[in-house]
Design a protein that fits this description.
hpI Integrase, Chain A; disordered N terminus; alpha/beta; 4 domains; 5-stranded parallel β-sheet; about 5% strand; Rossmann fold
Length: about 500
């Protein structure tokens, strides 16, 4: 068992994501809120407190008062973009009798109160879950997008710092990350050689193939393709404290999805259900030495870690689980369990206790029906193989650095062999990376059998037995009484076929 610290990152949207967000935001008030943060770089707290009198509509500026304690009373002046001005005009046209002192975004019941930050978070989450493949969509991502876009377009740092309301350049640079594509283009523009017409003609006539560096670098695997909707749903369940099990066949990315959960809640990982006592001891030790030190001091006094482990190991599994439940607040932690395929009856009993104290997120290919009682209040999130579009995206991302004779042939072959299974795609491309040259013949010769489909031959068997049963009635026609015995045996098999197939059917959840 170990604890996974939530990684704090600064996120921004690319141009394609910005366009999709604006197209997906039908509500004019929501679109205006988005544009104020996106085109003016405003914080969500500043946006919701805007009053109509803060705008200079004639000159197209908005005046924003800093809400930071060290900068109270300081105003900054930000220009309005053309698209923001148009949406603002449409919005105010629907505003009844606007007055300068009125909040721009009042609550539905009281014009003297503005909406809350949570209201903005809620509608962004709702938009993301319904239609957008944007992994992290939150108010500050929009402010960071503003800074990133201006840096990319060459806006002077002093201007960006002023519009964001920062005291120092260091803060502005933290919130401004130039996309890799822009950096590459900048370098290319600076280093590109100005060639004469004669030299360009000469190179075109005697064109030589550029050399390609084929030294493979480690592939960054902590990215997500084709699972954005599932991840958004999983994050939503985790935030609400809903126990969830992710199901699906081998290789569809269940563990990968769990590893990409982002939540403000604290997380713990239970990684050994076979040695359950050891795992529960480690959970308790971690809790005692971090969040629950006061309880530890009360129970164990000045015990060191090893002495505490020795004492805890003398307790029963049942007592350890009960102690964990006592010292944590309900749903205070997310408990990630990588896999419960081989869970023991004792493990089932413990998880039945822990499921109300923790938000449990786990995965399984199949669980025996007689061990599934702990799943009764779990949401089921089923993962299937990826679509062709998403599969080709993943193939492109994993194989961008390969030198391949026919790249289209390569992509189609990998997709056909994998049937959209992410693990098979990873393994196939890893196999190709071991080849010094990837010619068309090499592409066709490398295959993978892990993603072959299963077929149900029950109907075929029943039809075969039924055909044999007909032999009983052919006895008199062909004058062969051996057919009577074969047909009779087939008739008996048909009578009991339902029972036979029920008994042999796979009994897994």
């Amino acid at each position: 068992m170990f604890v996974n610290e939530v990684e704090r990152e600064i996120h921004f949207l690319n141009k394609h994501e910005v366009d999709k967000l604006l197209k997906s935001t039908a509500n004019i008030r929501h679109k205006l809120i988005v544009l104020l943060m996106l085109d003016c770089g405003m914080r969500v707290s500043e946006t919701i407190r805007l009053r109509i009198g803060d705008f200079d509509f004639r000159n197209r500026f908005v005046y924003v008062q800093s809400l930071k304690k060290r900068s109270q009373g300081v105003w900054r002046k930000i220009p309005l973009s053309e698209r923001l001005y148009k949406i603002l005009a449409d919005y105010l046209y629907t505003y009844k009798n606007p007055e300068p002192h009125d909040y721009l975004f009042p609550t539905p019941t009281n014009r003297n109160q503005h909406i809350t930050r949570q209201a903005v978070n809620n509608f962004l989450t709702r938009i993301r879950n319904q239609s957008l493949p944007i992994r992290r969509l939150h108010p500050h991502a929009l402010r960071h997008t503003f800074a990133t876009q201006h840096i990319s377009q060459g806006t002077p740092l002093e201007n960006i710092k002023t519009m964001l309301g920062h005291k120092s350049y260091d803060t502005t640079l933290i919130y401004s990350k130039i996309p890799d594509e822009i950096l590459k283009q900048n370098v290319e523009n600076v280093t590109k050689e100005n060639k004469s017409l004669i030299k360009r003609l000469f190179e075109r006539m005697w064109k030589s193939e550029p050399k390609t560096i084929n030294i493979q670098t480690p592939v960054q695997k902590n990215f997500l393709v084709g699972r954005i909707n599932e991840l958004n749903k999983l994050n939503d369940f985790a935030q609400k404290g809903v126990n969830t099990i992710i199901t699906g066949s081998i290789g569809v990315g269940k563990t990968h999805l769990i590893n990409n959960i982002t939540s403000e809640k604290k997380m713990m990982i239970l990684d050994d259900l076979q040695n359950l006592k050891k795992s529960l001891v480690y959970m308790l030790v971690y809790l005692y030495e971090n969040d629950k030190q006061a309880i530890k001091n009360l129970i164990f006094g000045d015990y060191d870690t090893e002495a505490m482990k020795v004492k805890l190991n003398k307790e029963s599994i049942q007592n350890l689980a009960e102690e964990i439940i006592k010292i944590v607040e309900p749903k205070e932690y997310i408990l990630k369990i990588d896999n419960v395929d081989r869970i023991t009856p004792k493990g089932v009993k413990i998880l039945e206790q822990l499921k109300d104290a923790f938000t449990i997120i786990t995965t399984a290919r199949e669980i025996s029906l007689n061990k599934s009682s702990f799943l009764w209040n779990f949401e089921v999130l089923e993962l299937k193989n990826m679509s062709r579009f998403d599969s080709l995206q993943l193939i492109q991302k994993l194989s961008y650095d390969l030198e391949i004779e026919d790249y289209d042939l390569f992509k189609n072959h990998v997709y056909e062999q994998s049937a959209g299974n992410p693990r098979v795609i990873f393994e196939l491309i890893d196999r190709y990376k071991r080849e010094p040259f990837i010619l068309n013949e090499t592409v066709r010769n490398i295959r993978h059998h892990g993603a072959l489909k299963e077929y149900d031959f029950s109907i075929v068997i029943i039809l075969l037995i039924a055909s044999m049963a007909i032999m009983r009635y052919l006895t008199h026609e062909v004058d062969n009484y051996a057919y009577r015995f074969i047909g009779g045996a087939a008739m008996i098999l048909l009578i009991f076929s339902r029972t036979i197939f029920t008994k042999t059917k796979r009994k897994f959840f």
